């Protein structure tokens, strides 16, 4: 359970007459307002406004337990005093290093007519959003089970959504879905049924009444399942959906939430803003998650070389990986990732030699694992060594002794409660062994990189590898990349594996090289694995290579300067020393002129790198003054280096 320092603001015990009145909670600045009420049928509801704008119409609250209905027939009996929440903490793997959370907290209590478990809802309202979690209390010592969560998000009928179709379990490559690797549907009418028929994944972005709303969840402990939005959303009311039946680690493992009482659920998170800046800049996902259980690793984030995405399985060999270690060392990057089949094509002894060689070059070696128990049929090895605790701990100790710095674990099987536990078991055991972790073929971040600082990044995105699989994906790269800063990357580190200047074998890349360079700043990941290979990097102008070499290993802050999901994005990221880097991309099919106000960042001058005469060339010039004008070609990009 989270413990916060509280300051009492207002005491409002409810009398019998007052109990029938709606309860209100406002953000510290008063702009975000939540109203909690009960329908005549005893259904708890909440609604959200930003100033005079309605963002969520009255939306449902409640839980259906196996033995108790806490969705209707309830009375609002009490609302605790409003308390101020203050939480300051540090992160090294996310968009902001020094995070400051301020919110007003109020617990609203409901009474069921039946005896048994009783429901309360904890609301925390900050200047950038609304969060709420359920508290189920009672005298029973038996394990309780939730069969349905009644939570809904009832948007105005005119809202538009940028939504990620949730995949059907046990589909895709070797039965590895759902792994959050679809293209977002952009600007669709709220209430549109999902294209796959399994609903929509978190995070979900909406534009409504001149404002923006991002829905997600955070604070995932061990007593709940990961959720998403349901397939049907009549009248733009999106319900919360539980995982599909196959999404559990073993046939008898927990799928739906199970826990003893008292029971606190994860947070439902509604990030809000009158512009897109609060959506991109918010840290609510980590604000609402448990503090670090192990020391924060200030020197762990960094950049990494990686052969697999452009060179494939066949190049996971000793000689090639040694060359990529040299590449990382030459670029000043902290890591080199050795992907699947290293145990077969290199072997443990020679991998130990690679790890030792890497350390002599001040490079840390990362190695890949298949997560699988029964849930996937992926043949890539090492397989079947991480699921059982004894085997996992023995393996982690072995590779740590070999000199390996971290692991990439791939091909997970879903969002059931047992998988939420498996993820955290892996993080705990890896931390005890002193290993960093990168999850692939995975669920979304839910604030775990705060709770487990050895978690560097998570995929949960249709990343660069998909561009090598199918021309259709390659054709959509620009619009996809211009959507991600406002959606997936807004809720946590994202291992898209960006930036390739080389051509993709058998595919035609539509983006310019300057577009690709911009992704090195636009996308945030605790460890940033670059797609480019040594030969491709060596072929670029010296000033481009120098830019990539000088990129900081982690970021201290972020500002959205301009953009619109799927069309263009301009971000500034601050290095730990205070210098700001700016990156922008144009995803449209026409040239676009972008005005960058450097004065907002305290910059008087910088070096601009953008498109040259062709989409495979660069140009550069010094820029100064308060505003810089950059005209980007279709699917072009730029960076400004301080």
From TrEMBL:
GO MF entries: carbohydrate binding; hydrolase activity, acting on glycosyl bonds
Protein name: Glycoside hydrolase family 97 protein
Keyword set includes Hydrolase: yes
Subunit structure as annotated in this protein's UniProt entry: Monomer.
Cofactor(s) the record lists: Ca(2+)
Domain Glycosyl-hydrolase 97 N-terminal per the UniProt entry, residue ranges: 25-291
Glycosyl-hydrolase 97 C-terminal oligomerisation domain mapped to chain residues: 555-640
Domain Glycosyl-hydrolase 97 catalytic: 313-461
InterPro entries associated with the record: Aldolase_TIM, GH, GH-type_carb-bd, GH97_C, GH97_catalytic, GH97_N, Glyco_hydro_b, Glycosyl_hydrolase_97
Species, as recorded: Hymenobacter wooponensis
Keyword hit for Amino-acid biosynthesis: no
Top-level taxon in the UniProt lineage: Bacteria
Signal peptide: 1-19
UniProt lineage: Bacteria, Pseudomonadati, Bacteroidota, Cytophagia, Cytophagales
Keywords of the record: Calcium, Glycosidase, Hydrolase, Signal
